[in-house]
Design goal:
- The protein is α+β, with helices and mostly antiparallel strands and about 180 residues long.
- It has a domain at about 1-95: Alpha-Beta Plaits, CATH 3.30.70.80.
- It has six helices and six strands.
- Strands 2-3-1-4 form a four-stranded antiparallel sheet.
- A hairpin with a 2-residue loop joins strand 2 (about 65-70) and strand 3.
Length: about 180
């Protein structure tokens, strides 16, 4: 009897480990993909594999490509499409990739000791609050509606945006002759 129980235990253990080796979805995502009630839920995932094939598979599954670094692609997809994506050519592995970001506006003032700069502690001759300072950023995009870029009245604190991907227009900055500026 004990021998039969051990056999069944190792048999089922062998089946489960064989399935785990061949699956491309993490356990958490596999369970989510089977949950019909949550099939329309948007999930964010990290996908290992060929980026070009993954991009095509995401298009076929209605997913959204976010970015990739090397062989890792970040994407958003409906939970009900996870199994289809996992079976696509070029996909080696899919892991949950949700990042829960939250602003650290209040704690960063303290942690970076900006409050001491505001108050003008020695060796500073007086306090500095950032008034009159203009910063320039070179980036691939900006969320100009974000609260960090608005003043206390809700008006934008952004002076200009120069979209260098746009064709020349009447508001093309000179002498560059390309792009479009927005005030």
């Amino acid at each position: 009897m004990k021998l039969q129980i051990y056999f069944l235990f190792f048999f089922f253990l062998g089946i489960q480990s064989a399935e785990a080796q061949h699956t491309r979805l993490s356990f958490q995502l596999a369970r989510l993909g089977m949950n019909k009630a949550r099939s329309a839920e948007q999930v964010y995932v990290l996908i290992k594999g060929d980026p070009a094939q993954i991009h095509a598979a995401l298009d076929a599954c209605g997913g959204s490509y976010l970015y990739n670094i090397g062989t890792i692609t970040s994407a958003g997809i409906k939970a009900g499409m996870l199994n289809k994506l996992a079976s696509a050519k070029g996909v080696d592995r899919i892991e949950a990739g949700s990042i829960r970001l939250h602003p650290l506006n209040d704690t960063m003032v303290y942690l970076t000791r900006v409050n001491l700069v505001h108050q003008g502690f020695a060796p500073l001759p007086h306090g500095y609050d950032g008034k009159g300072i203009v910063c320039g950023f070179i980036d691939t995009g900006i969320d100009y509606t974000h609260g960090d870029f608005k003043d206390s009245l809700g008006h934008s604190r952004i002076k200009y945006i120069w979209d260098q991907t746009m064709p020349s227009a009447s508001n093309t900055p000179q002498p560059f002759n390309y792009g479009t500026t927005y005030k």
